[in-house]
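Posting this for the archive.
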Amino acid sequence: MRKKLMRYIIIISMIVTTFSAVGVPLTSADSPAEASNPYPSLASSGVTIFIKLHWTGDNQTVTYDVYFGTDSQPPLVQTNLSTTIYTPGKLQQNTTYFWQIVSYNAQQESTASPVWMFTTAPDSSPFQPTVLGGPVTASKGIFLNFSAIALDPEADQVFYQWNWGDGNLSEWSGPYVFGEQAQGTHMYAQNGTYNITVRSKDVFAAESVWSAVYQVKIQPQFRFYNLHQGYVYLRFFGFDIGYGYSYALDQALWTMFISNDIFLVMINVTDNVSYMKYRVTNLVYQDEHYTVIDDNLSNDTSMVYFPIDTGFYNITAFAYDRHGNMIDQAMRNWVIYINWKWPILKRIFGRKG
């Protein structure tokens, strides 16, 4: 009897050893712990549509399967997840979602969590817009450009409307994609100080509040020092002399320049002007034109020389601030440049030739 018992023990030991060698798993005594502490918590409402799902897992758990959807028995959407975070992507607004986590240990034993649920928030209006940039001072009659941005909680496209502070309200412009800057352009007809505000709305018509005030002051930014309409200027040996005023010249928008030297333009500028640009064009021979940039202003004065010949010219000056915004422009439609080499002037000044 004892021999027979020993034989059974040996046979059982051999069977156990054989099954273990070929990889047949032994039953674990510890299944994985159930996932807990869901975020969003059960029955949460007003949840952002960009939510990331979180939960607490078992330290021994290796992977998770995620079930997620709008059905109370949500479908499988992710397998073998090694973290306790799942990102479902952008969700629908005002919608109830269900989700469940199934935990797996190394022996592929599983434990399912309860089915949790939450409801996303309805559509929200964009946040208060911010005016990002634009000139703070400029002249009337200039098209001024401003930029603004308003972020939307759901990353919806947005429209913008500008209140220019002078009684004019822009049409809604857009839509602009999430994070894109909006552009607004306006021209003021009168000098003064104006309070600019902007508001936005998303594609579902949810409107934001108005932005904080962005103030712009409208006033001239430069003036011609030696090119006043209707006047005759004499320039000899580096000196400019305003010789007199002619009503006929003024009505014709002319300034007469009599000189034995190159043509000089002098302009007084405000502190807001960073640099000036000049364009001079021969009105008879329009292929003759000059463009000069003066970025070395001295004592709030811009002085530019042009080596032009006798003729009729158009001079346009443009002022720019330090951000590159054009803040003023002015033009002398007709400029007569007369070099004193003309025979009649030679006689007047007693020159032989």
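The two ends are 153 Å apart (CA to CA). The CA atoms of residues 136 and 216 lie 4 Å apart.
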